[in-house]
């Protein structure tokens, strides 16, 4: 997933190049269609990646079958690369997708929130990987409003498809609220893992930012949706949503 100093292939992978003010550059590639990290690839990994180390309360995996947490393996190289960096340090971030390039000067925690969110959503965690669909249309550095709009839209399209197939759709978004509650549990456990892994706080605060978004949705989705009204499509011939 991570590369330093080589040329990237052009294709469906998403490429992050992060350059700190001290001139240090780290490059990462994330393939949304990659095969999930193996339960035990025979390679050594730090203790905080073990499945039984602060295992998520809603984890469906068994320690008898999985030695390592797939989510921890998905972000291990990111955590190692930025374990000695403070969250407030500035970074020049460039993100290349198949269709466009994003460039942003920001703090490290914001860049890592975006990168880790992508890694986790497209990885091997059976809970987080439910977000793989919208992650294929990755939007780096998305605001809370942009994230909510995309996630709610993706969920409602799924319910529309279910209804067309004869199923019972969840127009009240109860399932989405429940999913984000599960994401909150997972992110909280990941933070506990990183508390033991990171020398400084960039990685930890990146996960805290992810936790904040999960908390907003799981506890106050209806209120958050009201705030999205300015971005809705108006009725034909009528006023735009206000």
Question: Could you explain the architecture of this structure?
Answer:
Helices cover 41% and strands 12% of the residues. The chain is an alpha+beta fold and 242 residues long. The chain has one domain (2-231). A 5-stranded antiparallel β-sheet has the order 1-3-2-4-5, with helices on one face. Strand 4 and strand 5 form a beta hairpin. Helix 1 (70-81) crosses helix 5 (174-197), helix 2 packs across helix 6 (202-226) and helix 4 packs across helix 6 (202-226). The longest helix is centred in the last third of the chain and has 25 residues, at 202-226.
Q: Any chance you could write out the topology, listing elements then pairs?
A:
Blueprint: E1 2-3, E2 14-20, E3 25-30, H1 70-81, E4 90-96, E5 101-107, H2 108-121, H3 132-135, H4 144-164, H5 174-197, H6 202-226
Antiparallel strand pairs: 1-3, 2-3, 2-4, 4-5
Helix pairs in contact: 1-2, 1-5, 2-6, 4-6, 5-6
């Amino acid at each position: 997933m991570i590369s330093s100093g080589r040329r990237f292939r052009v294709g469906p992978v998403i490429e992050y190049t992060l350059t700190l003010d001290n001139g240090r550059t780290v490059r990462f590639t994330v393939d949304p269609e990659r095969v999930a990290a193996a339960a035990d690839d025979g390679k050594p990994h730090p203790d905080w990646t073990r499945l039984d180390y602060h295992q998520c309360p809603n984890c469906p995996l068994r320690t008898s079958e999985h030695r390592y947490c797939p989510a921890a393996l998905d972000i291990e190289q990111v955590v190692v690369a930025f374990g000695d960096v403070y969250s407030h340090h500035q970074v020049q971030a460039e993100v290349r997708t198949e269709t466009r390039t994003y460039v942003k000067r920001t703090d490290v925690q914001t860049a890592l929130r975006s990168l880790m969110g992508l890694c986790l959503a497209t990885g091997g965690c059976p809970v987080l990987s439910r977000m793989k669909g919208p992650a294929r249309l990755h939007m780096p550095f998305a605001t809370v409003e942009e994230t909510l709009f995309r996630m709610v839209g993706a969920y409602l399209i799924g319910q529309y498809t279910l209804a067309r197939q004869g199923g019972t759709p969840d127009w009240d978004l109860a399932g989405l609220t429940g999913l984000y509650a599960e994401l909150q549990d997972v992110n909280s456990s990941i933070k506990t893992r990183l508390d033991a892994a990171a020398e400084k706080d960039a990685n930890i605060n990146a996960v805290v930012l992810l936790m904040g978004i999960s908390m907003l949705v799981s506890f106050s989705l209806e209120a958050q949706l009201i705030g999205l009204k300015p971005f809705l499509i108006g009725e034909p011939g009528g006023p735009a949503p206000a």
